[in-house]
Design a protein that fits this description.
InterPro entries: HARBI1-like, HARBI1_dom
Strand content: 15-25%
Cofactor: a divalent metal cation
Subcellular location: Nucleus
Distance between the termini: 6 Å
Structural class: alpha/beta
Helix content: 25-40%
Number of helices: 6
Low-confidence stretches: none
Strand order of the largest sheet: 3-2-1-4-5
Keywords: Hydrolase, Metal-binding, Nuclease, Nucleus
Family: Belongs to the HARBI1 family.
């Protein structure tokens, strides 16, 4: 079922990678706390584990760090409307966030020009993603809520359809 979300017709209808001239998201542009500092942010990027039941011979690779059997999904969304801009699903649960991100880059994930996505510290310092410094407390509760809502929506949709 996860493959259905990253394949036509669903993917080609509902998911669209942004262009280089994508406008600045309204919540950033209209808020002096974020504009002009995050003007080049295209959206948020995060991963989520979806419970799965693979064949027995694939279960060890699907075991995540918490001991469950899952598939890893990497997705990006816009900051203002929470529309999907990229989804890579079906990665074994044992893969780390940074590994899944590198896989997405090898497949077809691209970020135009000098743009980037906001992500959590689990991705480490890589180009194309702006992550917080480890050990620094940030006060971006609004973005945490938005990203958590986005990940919850993805998880709920994938769980209900599987």
């Amino acid at each position: 079922m996860l493959l259905a979300f990253s394949s036509p017709p669903f993917y080609t209808t509902y998911v669209r990678l942004p262009e280089e001239d994508e406008p600045i998201p309204t919540p950033i542009y209209n808020d002096p706390r974020y504009h002009p500092f995050f003007d080049h942010a295209l959206g948020a990027a995060d991963g989520s584990h979806i419970v799965t039941a693979p064949p027995l011979d694939e279960r060890s690779a699907s075991r995540n760090r918490k001991g469950g059997i899952s598939q890893n999904v990497f997705a990006t969304c816009t900051l203002d409307t929470l529309l999907f801009t990229y989804v890579l699903s079906g990665i074994e649960g044992s893969a780390t966030d940074s590994t899944v991100f590198q896989m997405a880059r090898q497949v077809d994930f691209r970020v135009p020009g000098d743009r980037y996505y906001l992500a959590d510290a689990g991705y480490g310092f890589v180009d194309l993603l702006l992550v917080p410094y480890r050990g620094v407390r940030y006060h971006l509760a609004e973005w945490v809520v938005q990203v958590s809502t986005f990940v919850g929506m993805v998880t709920e949709k994938l769980t209900k359809s599987g």
